[in-house]
Amino acid sequence: MNNYLKKTDIYGKIWIWTAALVVIMVPVAVCVAYNAWPPITAVLKGLLGVAPMFWTVGVIEVITYTPMLGTGGTYLAFVTGNLTSIKAPAALNAMENLGVKADSEEGEVVSTIAIATSSIVTTLIILLGVCLLAVISPILNSPALQPAFDNILPALFGGLGVVYISKNWKLSIAPLVFMIVLFLLVPSLAGSVGVLVPVGIIITLAAGRFMYKKGWL
């Protein structure tokens, strides 16, 4: 298994940096094709407003999701994208159904397979959607379906939350109360999922340690 993890780490780094290079080359290719190069000062000014946030969220997500998804699952999830809404729920649900943990050999394999499968399924669905875009576009844009699309993420994590919260509901009290109060006071933070997930984890760990010392767990 150690050899497997070493190869996973090597190939994972190759694909991560390849994906980063491809993303960077898209605007470069546009500039080359249209011979339109923005001033470097304008580029730096634009980056200054968004880069710090994305870099911070990126670092936090790596620290948060790696213990949850394992080595192979983490690399694959970050390369294929949709980590929070698709890859993490798929991996967690697969490991939960099989009764394995991400830090075990079995969990490592199960997480990677689950994320790979979800990536293939997602790609096929997107391909099918593109081919049938003209047919399904009026349906997808229907006002009747809009509430469903607005609640996809809460529905995914709500289903997972029921499973994990039911195992030890006492641990969920502190983060739930904190997040509910926070979002009621500052609704604009609803889009800062990448930052608030690790905040919730820290609160849960602190509350769990406190309750354990008090003998409540």
Structure write-up:
There is one protein chain. The protein is mainly alpha-helical and 217 residues long. 85% of the residues lie in helices and 0% in strands. It is built from nine helices and no strands. Helix 2 runs parallel beside helix 3 (83-98), helix 2 packs across helix 4 and helix 2 (40-80) packs across helix 9 (193-214). It starts with a helix and ends with a helix.
Number of strands: 0
Shape: globular
Portion in beta strands: under 5%
Instruction: Report the structural category.
Output: mainly alpha
Low-confidence stretches: none
- Summarize the main sheet: none
Structure characteristics:
217 residues; mainly alpha; 9 helices; 0% strand
